[in-house]
Give the backbone structure.
Amino acid sequence: MSTTAPADALLEGLNEPQRQAVLHGDGPLLVLAGAGSGKTRVLTHRIAHLIRSGRAHPGEILAITFTNKAAEEMRERVERLVGDRATRRMWVMTFHAACARILRAHAERLGYKRGFTIYDEDDSLRLVKRCIEELDFDPKRFTPRAIKRQISDAKNDLRDPEAYRQGVGSFFEQTVAEVYELYERRIVEMNAMDFDDLLVRCVNLLELFEDVRAGYRRTFKHVLVDEYQDTNRAQYRLLRLIAGEHRNLCVVGDDDQSIYSFRGADIRNILEFEEDFPDATVVKLEQNYRSTQTILDAANAVIANNRGRKSKSLWSDLGRGEPVHIRELEDEFAEARFVVGEIERLVDEGASRDEIAVFYRTNAQSRVLEEVLVRYDVGYQVVGGRKFYERKEIRDAIAYLTFIANPSDAIAFQRIAGSPKRGIGETTQQRIIGHAETVGEQVWEIAARPELVPGLGGAAVKAVSRFMSIMERLRERAEGGARIADLLEETLHEVGYIEALQAERTIEAEGRLENLEQLVESARQYDASTDEPTLDGYLESISLRADTDDLRDDAGVVTLMTLHSAKGLEYPIVFIIGCEDGVFPSSRAIEAGDLEEERRLCYVGLTRAQRVLYLTHARTRLRHGEREWNQPSRFLAEIPPELTDAEEELVPARAAASRWGAPSPAAAPARPRPREEGVSFQIGDDVVHATFGEGVVTGKEPGGIVIVRFPGEGEKKLMEDYAPLKKVS
DNA sequence: TTTATTTGATTTTTT
DNA sequence: ATCAAATAAA
């Protein structure tokens, strides 16, 4: 397309509401975009139109997405419409990337230094744990994960430690408040930020400094946001700070596809947009260009069971197509065999494997399926799961560079000091970090002079100095402007990482070496493709990178992923496995009575399918090493039977209890079900034993063991299932 | 400090 | 079942 084509050309092939959204002038705009209704198209064409019609310069546009992949795709598509020269100065990036960029420019204002580290989930979890221990709380009673969650929720809600303390209502929250306070202090000391901080501190920056705020308000005359239903409080605040004045804010989203509330996404942001901006123009995109009407009817019927949503009904002119295939299988193996069998049948009939995707609720469910796929020699790829950048060797390698870039980073130091083994153990590390904290010096400075650290033995001092002299050399090389890839390669050799792996002589170590080579290769690409490669820039680019970004969709293989990762994608043929109550919807959601988000997840899954949709459920499956019998998912019963080819009658959840209820003896396999924990004996029960006589249950242990005290015999541990024990009523 | 053994936990996870 | 992390032993 020529860059001189008239702006009108951008409207070709758009339907009426799409056109309206593209043409909308100044002021707030909410685009309610149902699944597959061409929202990316609207966004890209709107941006292009803003530029073409002369209403905005590229540098005045801020376009926000949630994933790097989406950002890249959007940039490419805009580029195709207006050319790459115009696109270069545009900010098309994720919330986090945009915040990081703003923060780098003004770090000193918040007491940070430019080269601050960005901590990922793992790093910040480590720091939380250190704080818990430092405050002498028991990390078993107060797990780092649970506390981190609270802190993260608070941050996403823009509550600082002080505000959190105000709202404390339980002993647990009291503990969290203290950990939160220390965590904040420590993370600033280390010149680091976690993912949430990027947003929170960016908001702080804009709120505290009028000049900075005014600057960005002037710069970004038009702000566009994709996946608006997934924004949290902090992101919402940020948008208001930048766009609140000129109000040229265009948000695109679908409340029915909000599936990240567990991460702080606040569905109210989209539901109440019209209250926040009473003059907002609202455009609904309901025509779907992706799926058959049958699939859409099924999805519409399921989502209709949710309350509190913007009513919306997808339609398509792609015809009715096939019914939704629903199948019941005996167990997870039968299910996997069925799926693979159907895949092969469809491929025989002319489908390509890369047109097929299998979705599941939890990552663990991919295993059985993978086994069967391997056995039948069907090529596949798994999205998510073990992520490249989360592998130990990769994280270690990155941590070496991080420590060089940020000498205050105690977490990075902790990670690398003992890996590979070089005589610097846990205790030594703790002493160094502890001393750095008391003295208020950088960890690097302390570690460089270990003889001054109290409590270190001679051997430890020697090991640390040896290690740090290597690090000093590497730092000089980094400051000398070495290329990142070279620096990385040298580091891995100098510190003995490569040698240690080679010495292992295992297949696993081999794989790790390969991964490291891949990392060096990607660093080389960074060097080549970046205008001004810097260590800070490189570290930022990888810390903000998710693995799903690298999903390659061209290889001729079947794709496996969780329903969550499936959002935003589409496949001609889709299987959703494990459609059982307890699995999907998950038992947690059922217990909490919070089914709406699970239902939205179901809606997302169903609407990924273009032509063919299979939903399978198993009568029994093995989970956490225990066999479970589950009822078919209540969501299956929400699909009108005439849209499906189900052989059984699926009864809505409430009525189902009477039909399936507890599994009938006939339905259970020949082997008796293990007695359920807590069903037969409870603490305090009076019991009688065949040889010991009467006693009382005083305790229970996992694995079906009861502890019974018999007068004269003392306490005995007995196997609940086999002991000749009866309850006395 | 390193290793072997036991324990425990286990949804989803754009950054 | 499985994997990481805590604990105990060498």
The longest helix of chain A spans residues 507-529. The longest strand of chain A covers residues 609-618. Residues 695 and 710 of chain A are 4 Å apart (CA to CA).
